[in-house]
Amino acid sequence: MQATLPPKVLEAARRGEALLEEAQARGVVRRWSLRSLSGEPLPGVEGIAFYGREVSPEEIDHLQEAFLDLEDELDLGVAVILVPHD
Fold first, then answer.
1. What is the pTM (predicted TM-score) of this model?
2. Cα separation of 77 and 29, whole Å?
3. Which one, of 29, 6, 12, lies nearest residue 70 by Cα?
4. Cα dihedral 24, 47, 68, 75 sign
5. Packed helices 57-74 and 7-25: angle between N→C axes, nearest 10 degrees
6. What is the pairing mode between strands 77-85 and 44-52?
7. Is 11 exposed, middle or buried (0-12, 13-18, 19+ CB in 10 A)?
8. 3-class secondary-structure state, position 50
9. Given CA atoms 23, 29, 35, 37 in this order, what sign does their dihedral have?
10. Residue-wise pLDDT tens digits, 28-70
């Protein structure tokens, strides 16, 4: 039996995926994975995204800020690890 995700988790997952898809379309992110967490004590989303070493620090900062804004807006955990990769 699969647990039903809270609406805020579903919204965070949808918006997190949109951020990563947009970053991938712009060439900032090469690959990514995201998963939703329904559980206690901290519902939210977590993931990992790989970016090229040629990507500017400003682009990565912008993506990090977007995830922090999402976390603040929805008041739940959004943890996406950004990893440089060749």
1. 0.87
2. 21
3. 12
4. positive
5. 170
6. parallel
7. middle
8. strand
9. negative
10. 999 999 988 776 677 889 999 999 999 999 999 999 999 999 9
